[in-house]
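Re: the multi-chain job from yesterday

Posting the exact lines I submitted so nobody has to dig through the queue logs.
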Amino acid sequence: MEIFANLWLGLQTAASFSNLFYCLIGVVLGTAIGVLPGLGPVATIAMLLPITFGLQPVTALIMLSGIFYGAQYGGSTTAILVNLPGETSSVVTCIDGYQLAKQGRAGKALATAAISSFFAGTAVTLLIALFSPPLAGMALKFGPAEYFSLMMLGLVASVVLARGSLPNALGMIVLGLLLGIVGTDVNSGVARFSFGASELADGISFVVVAMGVFGLGEVVGNLEQGSKERSLLVKKVTGLMLTKEEFKSIIAPMLRGTLLGSILGILPGGGSSLSSFSAYALEKKISKNSVNFGKGAIEGVAAPEAANNAGAQASFIPMLTLGIPSNAVMALMIGAMMIQGIQPGPQVITEQPALFWGLVASMWIGNLLLVILNLPLIGLWVKMVSVPYHLLFPAVVVFCGIGVFSVSNSSFDVYLMVVFGLLGYIFRKLDCEPAPMMLSFILGPMIEEFLRRALLIADGDPMVFLTRPISASLLGICAVVIIIVTLPGLRKKREEVFVED
Amino acid sequence: MSFVIRDQKNFWTGVLYIGFAVAVLLVGRGYNFGSASRMGPGYFPTVLAGLLFFFGLLALIRGMRKEGAPIGPIAWKAAALVLLSMAAFGFLLERAGLPISLVVLIVGCASASDRFRFEWKATMLAIGLILFCVLVFIKGLGLPMPVLGSWFGS
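And the result, structure tokens for all chains:
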């Protein structure tokens, strides 16, 4: 079985001392930022990117992905203990998790969250191993027209989860594409929109954009809301063990959550938030225990927790096999790969098998580490939950500053980040979701290149995108997605989903 | 002229998009447009700017037609303090060195909080953070940032 040989290679790579060490750092940091108020995985990964420059590519990616799925764990801890979602994906965990905590069953809720997440993580790791090679094999046959259409689909789909109106979200995508153009045009050598600044000749670094918009912009946005006290419900968590009956009752929700999360996670624009919302909604409909949902049903913790972890990890599939990021974190991962000199795309599996399988295996190891570490470390997380924001954010700002400076050792990047920080705050005020912009900013140069090549081959005939079957079907899905999003029913659903943010 | 802004968020989004689009069109005038089969450097930006203008116009029109939630108060003070202290950090880093620029950055952005006041705990935390940065980033990771900058003759 080739897949076992591959996984074995991955395990060997991931289990090397330095990879294990950075995996551990990644998941612990991830959990910490998931627990700490007002700090998300996007900003953290952007801040830590410069530190990974000196690492091996696979080590860097292992650590960064650890931060991502570690944050899902941490987010659920705050959801259960203080009724505040650490991440958007744990919003629904608050509902039943907090009720359980109020009934003195916080330990059970935390254990359920950990077990469900671990189960989902394991299942999706296998899923990635099974489905990535054939997907990548298919993508290897893609020409420029197919790639262009695929990226279009990625961009359009990212709008589904964006807050606010559809045309405004599409506008954000165009804005991101335009920002991606800044720099020297590879075909003609013309420095576009660089305003004569040599610092802009290589384009705007995505670290600068990410840290400005998601780091500084969010700090200002959080400060505006004023300081809120986070009151801890429980000082000490006990009773982590589940009884046999409880264990039995969470198996089915866990399975359904994992399945739903995997499907929604693979979709471009999907990911953990959508997965956990849908899983909770589904479980509430079909569970035998549905009367107790909202009053502390353990199933109401298991399903969304399994789903958000599955969704988070499944979103690696399009990133690893096609080079298409499905959310802002994956966009950063793509950027991290490029900095390491790896061109993301379907060739990664065949050209860098150790990197690909090492990363896949590290996710499973990372999930295991999370279960082993987090339950005993719960006391530490509980302490972190109550760190006041006014003591925390100066550190965030400091790391943003040092991180951005170190990308190319220039103060220019720091000034540029200030500009994007301002823009990020304006976007927040105007309800313009910056995540699709980040995505299109990273994909922009590739999209232009594939568009040029496709049209060069087709002698300028735009019908090439519709006459080639794969490209046509991808664009067809784009159209369907746009139509579905504009349908009144789904529009209402979208609004409901974002009400609680 | 009578025009009413009914939905501030949409209206200003429109203004933002149109402003960007016009700026791109103006700056990009000089780039060769080329043709669809042989795109010049100006082709893609011009097309995108056109699209952005269109979305901006849509938002603007909706902003004047449909009622919407107001933008709400803008945290001018917090925004200015955080962003300006970051700019000052960028300016001072190579001139005054990391510790001094960090003091400016930390005190500057911390004062943006409504909970800002002198307290020993916060001061000790700030000093700890600066020490951590110097030790980890300069000594440990060897990032090329001076402890004492060019103003001090190093």
